[in-house]
Amino acid sequence: MLNGGYPRIYKDKLDPTKAYRNYFQTYIERDVRQLVQVKDLVQFQRFVQLCAGRVGQLLNLEGLGNDVGISSNTVKEWISILEASFILVRLQPYYENFGKRIVKAPKIYFTDVGLATYLLKIENIEQLSRDPLRGNLFENLILIELMKGRLNKGLDPQLYFFRDSHGHEVDFIFRSGNRLIPIEVKSAKTYNSDFIKNLLFFQKLATDRCPEGYIIYAGDLEQRIHEFKLIHYSNIAQIV
């Protein structure tokens, strides 16, 4: 989560904070100018930093615009720029056949979790372990690895999330044919029975389309709990 996924950081043993600082400044000063006529680059930079603070959260155009001082239409345009330049991804909700109670706004994530960590001013492991967004960054890491696993096979990610108006939420839904595989992500190293609560809810909602599910966490113990598999995050390739 601190080093991110860019090969050069590992190949040349770069300090991730300095590497991402240079990367982001180059992106702002060169790439953004080529993509769109942004009048205030400082304002755009603040916008990207605020997006990092919303990793794994629903995209609220009006709220984000109010915080930056821009219109909802400008937020929409800038989000599209970040997607087109491979900075952000929007994860869409899965709501087919589940009625009108389902939240239909997307969630935002960074294509490289190391960049998000840098934008949050996290510079070392100690800061990362205490940061309130640690769980969100871990979730971001897992999503991108799941997406890469699919894309490296030449397949569409087929990844979504689920949330209803009553607060029931599943971090990711992987659609495999007609099957829906719910995935919960926890940065904890110890299993808690609360981890499967929303998986059970979704399984009941999706009936026979949800024969199994996964809990991805940072602990070493792997086991089956009901129809769900508790796995260490290094073994997520078995899912996709």
Please write out the topology.
Elements: H1 7-11, H2 16-35, H3 41-52, H4 61-68, H5 72-84, E1 88-91, E2 107-110, H6 113-119, H7 125-130, H8 134-151, E3 159-163, E4 169-176, E5 179-185, H9 197-206, E6 213-217, E7 223-225, E8 228-232
Parallel strand pairs: 5-6, 6-8
Antiparallel strand pairs: 1-2, 3-4, 4-5, 7-8
Description:
By secondary structure, the chain is an alpha/beta fold. The chain has a domain at 1-90 and 108-134. 41% of the residues lie in helices and 17% in strands. It has a 6-stranded mixed beta sheet, sandwiched between helices. The protein has a two-stranded antiparallel sheet with strand order 1-2. Helix 4 crosses helix 5. The radius of gyration is 18 Å and the shape is globular. The chain starts with 6 loop residues before the first helix and ends in an 8-residue tail after the last strand.
Cα distance, first to last residue? 21 Å
- Please estimate the helix content: 40-55%
Round the mean pLDDT to the nearest integer and report it. 93
Percent strand: 15-25%
- Give the SSE order as H and E letters: HHHHHEEHHHEEEHEEE
Low-confidence stretches: none
Number of separate helices: 9
Q: Going across the major beta sheet, what is the strand order?
A: 3-4-5-6-8-7
Which structural category fits the helices and strands? alpha/beta
How many beta-strand segments?
8
What's the oligomerization state?
single chain
Outline type: globular
Largest sheet: 6 strands, mixed
Rg on CA atoms, Å: 18 Å
